[in-house]
Amino acid sequence: MSSRITCEVCTTAPVAVVRLTGALDLGTMRSVHRALSDALVDQPDALVVDLAEVDVKDRLALSVFAATARRAEEWPAVPVVLCAPSPVAARWLSESSTCRVVPVSPDCAEATRVAGATLRMRARLEPVAEACRRARELVTDACTRWNLPDASGPAALVLSELVGNVVRHAGTPMQVTVTLRRPYLHLAVVDGSSAQAREGGTDLHAEGGRGLLLVRELAQRWGSVRAGQGKAVWAMLPAT
Question: Which residues does the UniProt record annotate as the domain STAS (predicted)?
Answer without folding.
Answer: 15-115
